[in-house]
C-alpha cells in the first residue's frame, strides 16, 4: 500500500518548483491532489503532467484572500471527498536591502507568505477538525532561522511561519490535526539558478554537503510529514539544508 492511498491533498503554489515536486510525490504515493496557484493555465498544465483530471485538479487561488482559499479547499472536498493534507507553499520574493525596500515590497511578501499560510492553516484545520484527522505542512525557509541580507521581508515572513506553525499545532493537536513546517535551504530551481555565479558560489560554500538540494528532496520530507510515518509529530520544524546553518 502506498503512503497516501485514498487521501486528498491541497498544494498552494503547486504549478512549479517545490510545490509541483510535492504534488508529484503525493500522486506517486496514491493521493489525489488539488493545485492552487495564481496562473491557472500553468496550473492546468501541471495537472496534465501529474496524470490528468483523474488524479489532480487545478484551481486559481490568491492565498492572501480568505474566500479564495476557502474555495480551493471546498473544491478538494467536492471533487475528491475529503481534505487530508494541506501544503502551504505559495510564495514570492521582493528582495532589497532594508534601505531600498519599499513598504509595498514588505507588505506583499508578508501577505503572501505569512497571511497566506495563516489562511491555509486556519481554513484547512476547520475542515480537518470535523473529521478528527489531517496533516498541515507549512513551507518556511532557512532564511527564517538565520536572516539573510536583502530579505528583511522574506526572513520575517518565514520566521513568522514557524511561530504560526507551533501555535496552531497546540490549538488543534487534541482534534487529531497535525501542523509541521519545513525549512529548505539552497534548493535548485529556476529562481536560484538565476543568481549571479558569485552569490551561488558563496551560498554553496556554506553547505557541509557541498551541493544544492533538489525539489524532490524537499518533497520527500513533505511526504513524511503528510503520512502516518510522522503520526506522533506536530509543531516541529525540519531543516532540509544539506547541513547549512546548523
Automatic annotation (TrEMBL):
Keyword Repeat found: no
Molecular-function GO term, any one: 3-oxoacyl-[acyl-carrier-protein] reductase (NADPH) activity
SMART domains found in the cross-reference section: PKS_KR
Enzyme Commission number, as recorded: 1.1.1.100
Record keywords: Oxidoreductase
GO biological process: fatty acid elongation
Residues of the Ketoreductase domain: 7-190
InterPro entries linked to this entry: KR_dom (IPR057326), NAD(P)-bd_dom_sf (IPR036291), Sc_DH/Rdtase_CS (IPR020904), SDR_fam (IPR002347)
NCBIfam families: PRK05653.1-3, PRK07231.1, PRK12826.1-2
Family: Belongs to the short-chain dehydrogenases/reductases (SDR) family.
Protein name: 3-oxoacyl-ACP reductase FabG
Classification of source organism: Bacteria, Bacillati, Actinomycetota, Actinomycetes, Mycobacteriales
Protein encoded by which gene: fabG
Amino acid at each position: 500500500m502506498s503512503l497516501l492511498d485514498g487521501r486528498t491533498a491541497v498544494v498552494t503554489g503547486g504549478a512549479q518548483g517545490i510545490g509541483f515536486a510535492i504534488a508529484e510525490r503525493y500522486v506517486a504515493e496514491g493521493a489525489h491532489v488539488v493545485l492552487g496557484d495564481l496562473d491557472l493555465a500553468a496550473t492546468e498544465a501541471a495537472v496534465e503532467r501529474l496524470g490528468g483530471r483523474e488524479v489532480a485538479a487545478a484551481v486559481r487561488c490568491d492565498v492572501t484572500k480568505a474566500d479564495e482559499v476557502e474555495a480551493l479547499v471546498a473544491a478538494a472536498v467536492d471533487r475528491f471527498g475529503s481534505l487530508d493534507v494541506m501544503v502551504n507553499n505559495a510564495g514570492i520574493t521582493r528582495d532589497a536591502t532594508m534601505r531600498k525596500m519599499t513598504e509595498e515590497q514588505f507588505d506583499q511578501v508578508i501577505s503572501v507568505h505569512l497571511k497566506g499560510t495563516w489562511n491555509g492553516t486556519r481554513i484547512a484545520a476547520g475542515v480537518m477538525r470535523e473529521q478528527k484527522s489531517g496533516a498541515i505542512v507549512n513551507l518556511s525557509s532557512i532564511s527564517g532561522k538565520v536572516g539573510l541580507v536583502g530579505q528583511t521581508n522574506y526572513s520575517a515572513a518565514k520566521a513568522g511561519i514557524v511561530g504560526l506553525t507551533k501555535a496552531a499545532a497546540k490549538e488543534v493537536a487534541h482534534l487529531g490535526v497535525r501542523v509541521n513546517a519545513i525549512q529548505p535551504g539552497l534548493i535548485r530551481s529556476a529562481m536560484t539558478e538565476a543568481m549571479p555565479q558569485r552569490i551561488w558560489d558563496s551560498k554553496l560554500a556554506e553547505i557541509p554537503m557541498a551541493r544544492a538540494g533538489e525539489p524532490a528532496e524537499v518533497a520527500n520530507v513533505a511526504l513524511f510529514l503528510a503520512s502516518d510515518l510522522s503520526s506522533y509529530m506536530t509543531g516541529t520544524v525540519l531543516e532540509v539544508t544539506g547541513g547549512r546553518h546548523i
